[in-house]
Write a structure and sequence with these properties.
This protein is of the alpha/beta class. The chain contains 9 helices and 5 strands. The chain has a 5-stranded parallel sheet, sandwiched between helices. It is globular, with a radius of gyration of 17 Å. The N and C termini lie far apart (36 Å). The structure holds 5-hydroxybenzimidazolylcobamide. 5-hydroxybenzimidazolylcobamide binds next to α3, α4, α5, β3 and β4.
């Protein structure tokens, strides 16, 4: 199968919610030596984006969204170890606490960001989904985090990103930790409005932002 054909099949497997096919195509990409992040960004993400658009047009429904999410996760599960293996950085640049905002259970993108950060030399503490602001603040203090990355996929849960920044300020920690926000509805304008230090449009860019925030060159 040609590269472009493989990417199209990947997108289709997510749209059709075929988790076994998605995992199988991910394995084929690994065998073909395709960069795992490229397989995600050019193969599987267009599929999940399509499902998201159809869902908002009400031509696809929640069960299809769930199946597409599972297919995406099955593919990512195959590709993540490859990303970790590909990571060459052994020097630790800093500690990042990751969480999905309160009320938000989307975790595919955040987990990808975590994998890429780990592979790039960050220690990652992933608190999971639907994490109360106080729990994030406590963890930032406990591990003396350099960066906190908070993900929001819903327009409603984006407000939790702003609440976190306020809470870090009230806890006297805002001067010690940088805040990086991300998630599909998040924009650079929103990041600026709430006083975040960085915005990661995707996992690769999140790594670049994190490096900048801890002062790593290049
Ligand atoms: Co969900 N959902 N969903 N969903 N979902 C969205 C997000 C909508 C946009 C779909 C739509 O209507 N077009 C929509 C939100 C609309 C809105 O708020 N305006 C929506 C809705 C409405 C809902 C429910 C309310 C549906 C319902 O129950 N009626 C419900 C809410 C649950 C909740 O959170 N309380 C819901 C549920 C689900 C699942 C469970 C079925 C499933 C999630 C499975 C899972 O994550 N375990 C799901 C999915 C899969 C989606 C879409 C289709 C894909 C999300 C995804 O995984 N994208 C999504 C539509 C879309 O976003 N295109 C849809 C792929 C990853 C790779 O991209 O953007 O998440 P990403 O992450 C990137 C990037 O943002 C950045 O790097 C990542 C990697 O490249 N990044 C960061 C992310 N976090 C970062 C943090 C940082 O610090 C830095 C960078």
């Amino acid at each position: 199968m040609e590269r472009e054909e493989l990417f199209e099949a990947m997108a289709r497997s997510v749209i059709e919610g075929e988790d076994e096919t998605a995992a199988d195509l991910a394995r084929r990409a690994v065998e073909a030596g395709i960069d795992p992040l490229e397989a995600i960004d050019r193969g599987f993400v267009p599929g999940i984006d399509h499902v998201g658009q159809e869902f908002s047009r009400e031509t696809m429904f929640l069960p299809e969204l769930v199946l597409a999410g599972e297919a995406m996760k099955a593919a990512v599960a195959v590709l993540e170890p490859e990303m970790t293996r590909a990571g060459v950085a052994r020097e630790i640049h800093g500690t990042v606490v990751l969480a999905a905002a309160p009320g938000d259970i989307h975790d595919i993108g955040k987990s990808l960001v975590g994998t890429m950060l780990s592979a790039s030399g960050f220690r990652v503490v992933d608190l999971g989904v639907d994490v109360p602001v106080d729990a994030v603040v406590d963890k930032v203090r406990e591990v003396n985090a350099d960066i906190v990355g908070v993900s929001a996929l819903l327009t409603t849960t984006m407000l939790g990103q702003r609440d976190l920044i306020t809470a870090l300020g009230s806890a006297g920690l805002r001067g010690n930790v940088k805040v990086m926000v991300g998630g599909a509805p998040v924009t650079p304008e929103w990041a600026e409005e709430i006083g975040a230090d960085g915005f990661g449009e995707d996992a690769a860019r999140a790594v670049a932002v994190a490096r900048r925030l801890v002062g790593v060159e290049g």
